[in-house]
């Protein structure tokens, strides 16, 4: 591929997640303010972990795609790929500590964070290899909540459920483009799906925190 188109693509890859990172930075305090009204420390902790992992993931991705230093790109690529596991686990955290709190929430939380730790170790050691395995882990982690579909319907609000489904669908469809990102423009499309998925996750968490604040 010619250098200029590749550089132009990387520019837009960086911009897409840079904007997403800024949005996460701006909206995290709003989420924390909403969570503080509940008076539950665990709700605050869950929201902070969620927002922090989203900022980390989108920010690392933006810096990786913006960097032109080969050595920095190698380092940032490892962090870029590893942080996805943290975002997935971080997204489960506020849900499991609020509406899904209890045996199901605890079990899922332990499972996804254990998988995230394994995934991070995999990426630290083998970034660029075993892509099918790592992508499969992303998907399994993202959809493992279906084992708790009944408790979720019983304990989560309707808006949160719809937003979670929309987010999961966006990430999953985006994976199709991620796996073919050797094609021109496909990685940017993947980034757009990620941004959409992140927006859905934020909506789900905010709606659930707001609902519980109303109930309490």
Protein described:
The structure is a single chain. With 216 residues, the protein is mainly alpha-helical. It has a single domain (3-215), classed as Rhodopsin 7-helix transmembrane proteins (Rhopdopsin 7-helix transmembrane proteins). Helices cover 84% and strands 0% of the residues. The protein has helices at 3-36, 41-66, 70-96, 103-126, 131-143, 149-155, 158-178, 186-215. Helix 1 runs parallel beside helix 8, helix 2 packs antiparallel against helix 8 (186-215) and helix 3 packs antiparallel against helix 4 (103-126). The longest helix is centred in the N-terminal third of the chain and has 34 residues, at 3-36. The chain is globular, with a radius of gyration of 17 Å. Mean pLDDT is 93; it is low at 1-5.
Rounded mean pLDDT score? 93
Structural class: mainly alpha
Largest sheet: none
Secondary structure: helix percent: over 70%
Number of alpha- plus pi-helical segments: 8
What's the CATH first level?
Answer: Mainly Alpha
| Rg of Cα set | 17 Å
Order of helices and strands: HHHHHHHH
Span between termini: 57 Å
